[in-house]
């Protein structure tokens, strides 16, 4: 990925250009110390004078009123704020008419920014004050006052916090008066520019120490650049938060969100005082010290899938290369390419007006349909359909171009969704709610309606979510990484029950599901960990450590990120931007395939051939989940789990199917479900005995009293338990019932034997009836 820059031979402005701002993806306004505001049309390459400002107005910053305000959406921005050195800010129309000038600061107004919904304007001044104004220019409050100039200011993602500079310090101040202020020393020189991205919640800063730095929203340093030759005078996040640009003297740099540099350009610009990205994130403009306005667009992006490598060679051209036979295809587009995604045998390309869907078997005839909104910010693909996210909403399309669904939820802000907060599978869409990061909203991909009773999934503050891609919809799982970097797994459809959320890893920094099997990989404490069968945690959680493959992290450098896991290849991006590939054995994916198609003999043969303990552990878990006891017994025996082999034999000895099923639920730790299964089958004593075995005395007594049977059995076992530990009864309920019930062990044993013989007799009768029915 690099920037392709363009500069005019002769500068249109006669003096230093101080600020630039985009109205649409192809139209830019620039302001200069020559008092001129120019309009640049990139489609016609024309430049026109909008207005010549009064001689006393020297502009310092320009920011267009946001296009999206609530539900209403303007085609383009109609008004902008212009700050100037005379201590005023000016609300200016698109035609250049100053609608209102407001005395704001003593000395120059150095920065002015609208918040994301356009309800407030913040200004920062040479006088060290930060003020918040209404949309119409009325003063609401003075947020801060300090002794040094505030050179730059930025709104937090939810417009509830302000980031500003104070000499060498950065300060995050919430708008709520009682909330805690975060302040830290960020640079060794005066900080000149900051930016805060609403999608990834990361902060950029650059200053006179000639460095740029990336921070999280708590002030923790994520990346520090090497020292440049000159101070960093400008920087700006791309709207989707994937890349950012940095400007300095005769320098323009494109960087990844983690900080490493994609490309470095050395144009003849003087200092770049301001940088602005177009709304679709494909074009960049810079205000230059020598009177030029520099334009740049992003090219040479790469996408890989199996044997295909696709490169964006020009704004409207892609090159497809098949590495197996070196065949090359060129894809031409009518408009500028904004976003693209390559997966599951399809390439999806969003341009400014249309969406193109290519099948990897035929690159000549794409399916094309028009887009309502030109700023597609995210494309996600599943095997059967894909999801487009733009400023207006989310849309699921089939690969034939048919709109399938468009999920909606209260307070939806589609413009801040990214690949970590949205996940797609063949039947489910999962979205992390930005307004409450403990909530995960689940939708049916085919209807767009909320799953089940509409109740969302809740957990601790979630950072990243990912849905598995294979298997039936009833068995769909979602993996979550929370704020503590713990990895959890839970089911998406839980039929009215509280979802069981199981922890399967800690210190996990990124993750990805395999595209063809429900195998999960992740960076865990700088090691690559592959969970061959993560669902085993619901069947036999003690098997989970035995189903892992852990690769030593010595081959990876600092902070690697998982990009994808396709086939047997995991692609990782290292902290310095280089790509690393790690291969995973093909056997676990084969084992998943055999399990889904119930080919248990083939699964056993595969494990015997591979001689891998982790495969045997996976097979044991899969067989138990599918109640295939013979295979499970052999797999457990192969990994030396003899107590479990004995338990499987105990399951076989159960007189009825109902009893066997209930004991299998107990094996998986599902006590309430096991109890319910016993009660539904009329096996009251067994339900009571389960609670006695688990020392759940109150529940055992409650069942005995409710069904008017085996009260003496519960009391007898309770008495025996207390005698063993030399304790006396203190529970009022047990004292109450022990007064009127006599404990006789012989009677109790006889009663238990009678219950069990009744169950055996009933099971035998059921077996006879089913055999007679089958003969008929």
UniProtKB/TrEMBL annotation:
Domain IFT80/172/WDR35 TPR: 615-761
Cellular localization per UniProt: Cell projection, Cilium
Chief location bin: other
Pfam family, any one: Beta-prop_IFT80_2nd
Transmembrane listed as a keyword: no
Record GO biological process: cilium assembly
InterPro entries: Beta-prop_IFT80_2nd, TPR_IFT80_172_dom, WD40/YVTN_repeat-like_dom_sf, WD40_repeat_dom_sf, WD40_rpt
Keyword Cell membrane: no
Keywords recorded for this protein, A-Z: Cell projection, Cilium, WD repeat
Domain of life: Eukaryota
Sequence ranges assigned to domain IFT80 second beta-propeller in this UniProt record: 300-587
GO cellular component entries: centrosome; cilium; intraciliary transport particle B
Mapped WD repeat ranges: 102-134, 184-216
Protein name per UniProt: Intraflagellar transport protein 80 homolog isoform X2
Lineage: Eukaryota, Metazoa, Chordata, Craniata, Vertebrata
């Amino acid at each position: 990925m690099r920037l392709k820059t363009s500069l005019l031979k002769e500068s249109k402005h006669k003096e230093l250009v101080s600020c630039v701002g985009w109205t649409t993806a192809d139209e830019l306004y620039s302001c200069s110390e020559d008092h001129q505001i120019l309009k640049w049309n990139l489609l016609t390459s024309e430049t026109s004078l909008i207005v010549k400002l009064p001689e006393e107005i020297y502009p310092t910053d320009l920011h267009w009123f946001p296009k999206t305000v609530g539900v209403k959406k303007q085609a383009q921005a109609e008004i902008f704020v212009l700050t100037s050195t005379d201590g005023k800010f000016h609300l200016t129309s698109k035609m250049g008419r100053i609608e209102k000038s407001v005395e704001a600061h003593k000395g120059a107004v150095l920065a002015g920014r609208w918040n994301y919904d356009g309800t407030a304007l913040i200004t920062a001044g040479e006088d060290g004050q930060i003020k918040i104004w209404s949309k119409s220019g009325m003063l609401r409050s003075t947020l801060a006052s300090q002794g040094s100039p505030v050179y730059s200011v930025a709104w937090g993602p939810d417009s509830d916090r302000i980031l500003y500079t104070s000499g060498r310090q950065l300060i995050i101040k919430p708008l709520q008066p009682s909330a805690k202020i975060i302040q830290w020393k960020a640079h060794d020189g005066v900080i000149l520019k900051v930016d805060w991205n609403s999608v990834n919640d990361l902060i950029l800063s650059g200053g006179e120490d000639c460095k740029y730095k990336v921070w999280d929203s708590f002030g923790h340093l994520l990346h520090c650049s090497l020292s440049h030759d000159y101070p960093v005078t400008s920087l700006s996040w791309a709207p989707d938060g994937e890349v950012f640009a940095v400007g300095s003297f005769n320098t323009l740099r494109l960087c990844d969100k983690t900080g490493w540099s994609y490309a470095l350009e050395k144009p003849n610009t003087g200092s770049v005082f301001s940088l602005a990205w177009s709304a679709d994130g494909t074009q960049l403009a810079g205000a230059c010290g020598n009177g030029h306005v520099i334009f740049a667009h992003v090219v040479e992006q790469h996408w890989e899938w199996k044997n295909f490598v696709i490169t964006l060679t020009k704004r409207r051209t892609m090159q497809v290369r098949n590495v197996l036979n070196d065949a090359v295809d060129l894809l031409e587009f009518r408009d500028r390419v904004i976003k693209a995604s390559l997966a599951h045998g399809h390439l999806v390309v969003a341009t400014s007006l249309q969406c193109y869907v290519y099948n990897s078997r035929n690159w000549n005839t794409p399916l094309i349909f028009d887009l309502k909104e030109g700023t597609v910010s995210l494309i996600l693909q599943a095997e059967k359909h894909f999801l487009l996210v733009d400023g207006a909403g989310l849309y699921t399309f089939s690969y034939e171009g048919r709109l399938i669904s468009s999920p909606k939820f209260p307070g939806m802000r589609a413009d801040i969704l990214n690949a970590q907060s949205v996940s797609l599978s063949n039947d489910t869409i999962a979205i992390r709610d930005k307004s409450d990061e403990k909530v995960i909203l689940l939708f049916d991909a085919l209807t767009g309606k909320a799953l089940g009773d509409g109740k969302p999934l809740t957990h601790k503050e979630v950072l990243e979510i990912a849905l598995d891609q294979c298997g039936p919809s009833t068995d769909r799982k979602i993996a979550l990484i929370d704020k503590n970097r713990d990895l959890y797994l839970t089911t998406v459809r839980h039929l009215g029950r509280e979802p069981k959320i199981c922890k399967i890893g800690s210190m996990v920094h990124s993750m990805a599901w395999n595209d063809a099997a429900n195998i999960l990989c992740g960076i865990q404490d700088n090691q690559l960990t592959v969970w061959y069968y993560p669902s085993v945690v619901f069947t036999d959680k003690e098997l989970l450590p035995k189903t892992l493959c852990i690769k030593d992290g010595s081959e990876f450098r600092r902070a690697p990120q998982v990009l994808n896991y396709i086939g047997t290849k995991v692609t990782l991006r290292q902290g310095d931007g280089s790509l690393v590939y790690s291969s995973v054995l093909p056997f676990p994916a084969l084992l998943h395939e055999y399990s889904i198609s119930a080919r248990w003999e083939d699964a056993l043969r595969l494990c015997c051939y591979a001689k891998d303990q982790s495969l045997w552990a996976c097979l044991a878990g899969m067989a138990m989940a599918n109640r295939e006891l013979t295979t499970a017994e052999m797999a457990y025996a192969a990994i030396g789990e003899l107590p479990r082999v004995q338990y499987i034999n105990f399951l076989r000895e159960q007189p009825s199917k109902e009893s066997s099923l209930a004991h299998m639920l107990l094996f998986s730790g599902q006590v309430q479900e096991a109890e319910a299964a016993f009660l539904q089958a009329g096996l009251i004593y067994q339900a009571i005995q389960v609670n006695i075995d688990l020392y759940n005395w109150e529940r055992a007594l409650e069942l005995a009293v409710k069904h008017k049977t085996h009260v003496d059995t519960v009391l007898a076992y309770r008495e025996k338990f207390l005698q063993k530990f030399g304790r006396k009864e203190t529970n009022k309920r047990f004292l109450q019932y022990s007064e009127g019930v006599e404990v006789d062990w012989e009677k109790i044993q006889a009663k238990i034997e009678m219950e069990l013989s009744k169950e055996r007799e009933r099971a035998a009768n059921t077996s006879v009836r089913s055999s007679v029915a089958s003969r008929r």
